[in-house]
Write a structure and sequence with these properties.
heterodimer, A: alpha/beta, Helix Hairpins, Pyruvate Kinase, Chain: A, domain 1, four-stranded mixed sheet, 5 helices, elongated, B: 89 residues, mainly beta
């Protein structure tokens, strides 16, 4: 009895050990990827800030006459661009995103452009119609973002969608990532910088200029959101794998203790048997 | 001497963020040079064009610009583009 249980415990220790090796490796991979992802995320920030100011300068140009892209429409059809993870095992990173969107999407007909394999898997189960999708968040190119931007802009111009929302995770720190829903179109008035009241010369006109620049701007937004999300995913995975590794360590400690106790009791039993035999 | 503050920025990062004497870029309406005290201005850049930057010390650098926007506001000149590459680098 004691022998069998010793063997069982040994087997369990071994399996926990190999799990621990995997979680440890995943944690290391995530932290090294996180470093690169954070650098890319930081690099994309100045562009967003400068481009946003420029877009608003154009959108609000001509006192009184606002661009069509600023005026909110009555929403009956909304399109989400959802940036989730490429892989699982990142704590609640993916689930949080999907829950947030489910909650947000109650009031309108919605369709979705998933980016990242986990998002595609989730939405291909028929939750929302998929317009188009991108398989990988990691290393998402500016060109791919440009394609999506052009496509949604076209549909927005046709009146197919009344609102386009970008859903991504914002990296606050390694321990904290926030899911964010950012309206792309109509342009989010909360982003608007203070008006300087200065007159600006636009070539060609402000509207035409905005039309040519908007696809690039949206592509930039999607790109920087993808960088942000990827950094968040790696951070979430790093933390999840760190605690998994710690848990595995605790478990091994516990099992070793049980193993040693079982070993000791089997030795004691054997000794008792020998002593009992000698006394006869 | 009056200077402009030039920023060249792409989603992949900043390529220039410093004072300069002059910058020349190709817009859809033709080549445009921006000098200090320029009126606030915005123009679309051509799909493929060059930027010539005259730095503070008079050195001229050239770069490749892929589309985007030229934005001038109060002597802050911004070249907002998809891709940028210094040709002398």
């Amino acid at each position: 009895m004691a022998g069998a249980s010793m063997k069982d415990i040994k087997l369990r220790i071994r399996s926990v050990e190999s799990t621990m090796q995997i979680t440890k490796a995943m944690q290391l991979v995530a932290s090294s990827k996180l470093r690169g992802a954070r650098a890319r995320m930081e690099a994309s920030k100045p562009y967003m800030k400068i481009a946003r100011t420029a877009v608003w300068d154009m959108a609000l140009h001509n006192t009184g006459a606002q661009s069509d892209y600023v005026i909110p429409r009555e929403i009956s059809q909304r399109c989400y661009i959802v940036i989730a993870g490429d892989r699982g095992l990142a704590g609640s990173y993916n689930a949080n995103m999907f829950k947030r969107i489910e909650w947000d999407s109650r009031d309108a007909n919605c369709c979705v452009i998933p980016i990242g394999r986990k998002a595609i898997e989730y939405y291909s189960r028929g939750r929302m119609p998929i317009i188009t999708s991108v398989e990988k968040v990691e290393g998402l190119s500016l060109e791919a973002c440009g394609d999506i931007a052009k496509r949604v802009l076209e549909s927005y111009d046709n009146g197919e969608y009344d609102e386009i929302v970008l859903a991504y995770s914002s990296f606050v720190s390694v321990l904290l990532q926030k899911t964010k829903l950012k309206p792309l179109l109509p342009l989010d008035a909360r982003d608007a910088p203070e008006r300087t009241g200065r007159q600006m010369l636009c070539e060609p006109g402000a509207d035409a200029l905005l039309k040519t620049f908007l696809p690039q701007y949206l592509a930039g937004l999607i790109y920087s959101a993808a960088c942000d999300s990827f950094a968040s995913e790696q951070a979430a995975r790093r933390v999840a794998m760190d605690s998994a590794t710690k848990n595995a360590g605790d478990m091994i400690e516990d099992l070793s203790l049980r193993y040693n106790r079982a070993r000791q009791s089997s030795i004691t039993q054997e000794l008792t048997e020998i002593v009992a035999g000698a006394e006869h | 001497m009056a200077m402009i503050h030039l920023t060249i920025v792409t989603p992949e990062g900043k390529f220039f963020d410093d004072d300069a004497q002059r910058v020349m870029v190709r817009t859809t309406g033709g080549d445009v040079a921006i000098l200090p005290h320029h009126i606030d201005y915005a123009a679309a850049l051509t799909e493929l064009g060059q930027a010539r930057v005259t730095e503070v010390d008079g050195r001229v650098r050239q770069g490749e610009v892929q589309g985007g926007l030229l934005h001038v506001s109060n002597d802050n000149v911004q070249v907002i583009t998809n891709h940028f590459r210094w040709m002398d680098a």
